[in-house]
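It would be a great kindness if you could assist me with a short task in structural biology. The matter concerns a single protein, recorded as an amino acid sequence and a row of backbone structure tokens. Kindly check, if you would, that the fold set down in the tokens agrees with what the sequence suggests. Thank you for your consideration; the sequence and its tokens are set out here:
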Amino acid sequence: MSDTPSGYNREYYLKNKDRIAAQKKLRYENDPEYREAVKARRREQKARQRAAKAKARENQLPTNQREARKKRVILPNGERAVARMYTLGQASWRIGITSQTLTKWEQIGVIPEPTYRTPGGLRTYTTDEVSVIRRAYNKHTKLQAEAGERWRLTDEFRADIARGMAKLTQGLASNHPQEEGDDEETSDE
């Protein structure tokens, strides 16, 4: 038999595991304090597992896709601004919906077509556009949950999106900072 520094003796345990398991089971059945301690440990373990799963979901996007890309834009008044742009997948991930849902909302007119596209024609959304959609989605998800309803598209949701998007100029809020960046310069044409 070889003892490890922690006092755990693998050989002993392997030889006596059935007897040890039977003793634990008997104690669990007859000792309420022991039973509660075991249940508490199980609850703690499940909470740690849930937290680990939530953290994994947060980091679902590859590291290189979590950050928005910057793009220089020329506003209608001639001023230049640097806008942070999200791809369709990044935008939908930040809103909390699937990319198919975001595409469907665009197709049926719930959200307007994005202001910007990549040179390859892929949709890109500004942080302000994503914020408008996310706020409206979160608001209506909460309202419907409080009313005991499943999520569904409503006229109020569409109106909130329309009001929020109407406040944007070329996908940017009016208070959007005018910055200098080192990314590609693009005008909205």
